[in-house]
Design brief:
This protein is an alpha+beta fold and 94 residues long. It contains two helices and four strands.
Length: 94
């Protein structure tokens, strides 16, 4: 299962790179697309849970790293200014 990294520009201008154990994240996020903070959070939840489920189907356990990334995304979102601010997916790699 190919790992995927995705780079995000947050509303405060910060850039972070996050990990997914699966390319399924590309079905939920699009490079160059701008998302409201809440939409980005929901898409990230769906994508990383789906990725973790794929790991579970193959190896019999969920991906703790994917869940840690989701927690990091949710914590970062709490520090962002305003609900209407945009989160931009800048790139996928690997």
């Amino acid at each position: 299962m190919p790992e995927t990294l995705f780079r995000v520009r947050w509303p405060d201008g910060g850039v972070e790179t996050y990990y997914s154990p699966s390319t399924i994240v590309k079905q939920f996020l699009v490079v160059g697309q701008s998302y409201s903070l809440e939409d980005f959070l929901e898409r990230s939840r769906l994508a990383l849970r789906a990725a973790s489920d794929r790991v579970n189907a193959l190896y019999g356990m969920h991906c703790s790293r994917a869940m840690a990334q989701l927690e990091a995304i949710e914590l970062k979102a709490k520090t962002q200014p305003g609900d209407a601010a945009a989160v931009v997916v800048e790139a996928f790699s690997r």
